[in-house]
């Protein structure tokens, strides 16, 4: 067995860990337990969503909390990575547009600097996949992709893939 270092497959790792950690901590804080509690819990998030005019604020507060906490953890672990990254990208894009955009760019003023960055990192992780050191690689020997995407291969890939069993 030969080892060939492929930086393109290792590149997503720090992005995946960073994105997953930030989202996990933000999501866990919304459960309002332990040292990461945000003080308002999911009910506080629902109240805030209601003040923004978001319909079904309690439902969306729970969805956001689960996407951030559960999705963040799955992204760290490298399991269902692309799917979770898409959900996180949508979550952060909505937060950018509805909450942070009116406050300008700077994060110190509640601006969109951080949420925009998280949106773009999530899009990058969704496009690149989990990379190496992921549960997808450890458990299945490959990334979990829909069959059509899996057959397309990677851009610039030169290796022939064996037919699916």
From TrEMBL:
List, alphabetically, the Pfam families matched: DoxX (PF07681)
Q: Establish whether keyword Signal is in the entry.
A: no
Does this entry carry the keyword RNA-binding? no
Where does the protein principally reside? membrane
Q: Coiled-coil regions in this chain?
A: none
Alphabetical list of InterPro entries matching this protein: DoxX (IPR032808), DoxX-like_oxidoreductase (IPR051907)
Lineage, top-rank taxon, reads Archaea
Subcellular localization is given as: Cell membrane
Q: What Gene Ontology cellular-component terms does the record carry? A: plasma membrane
Q: Which UniProt keywords apply?
A: Cell membrane, Membrane, Transmembrane, Transmembrane helix
Q: Which residues cross the membrane?
A: 12-29, 114-135
* UniProt membrane topology term: Multi-pass membrane protein
- What's the protein here called? Putative oxidoreductase
